Amino acid sequence: MASIRILIADDHAVLRAGLRMLLEAQNDMRVVGEAGDGSEVSRKTRELQPDVVLTDLSMPGPGSGDVIRQVLRACPSTRVLILTMHDDPAYLAAALSAGAAGYVVKKVADSELVQAIRAVHAGRTFVDLTQTTHPTSQRPKDLSQREREVLRLLAQGYSNQQIATQIKVSVKTVETHRTRLSEKLGLKGRAELYRFAVESGILAPDS
To answer: Is the predicted pLDDT of residue 170 greater than 80, yes or no?
Structure first.
């Protein structure tokens, strides 16, 4: 099986070295490059075409949202996993809105970081719930089972067409469910729906 090709982006060389040692110790991973600032991330993504970009949010150069969007323009098949010290849900929502596939904090266990890389490479979304969110009393009591299912799939990054295929309904039906979800929950856009799915327990870290 081909190795997961990873680009590590962080402005601290010592941290990059530690991450490289951890990841290259995995049988299914290979570090293909490193970047120390936002501009270098975009350039190296174009050059190396990695499967996963593991990047910090706070680096010199362009803002993190711009970096994520530039990476995805340079290589649409690349998955972006955020590794950050920020455990504020607002940072999570902004990263997901820009197109990140996962978000973990730097105090996460090594095993969970490795799990996160494998998850996003496999096309799933991964969030370190224990650090990025806080308990919430809000629960999706008014959602039907099908609406919960659509919300979970939306939060995992599936398109309307993919959801329709998976649950065997028309795209129009999925769009209707999505509209009702937004109306019932008072949320707009995938990032807000994602955050609700995380905080309400619909989306688990390994889902």
So the answer is: yes
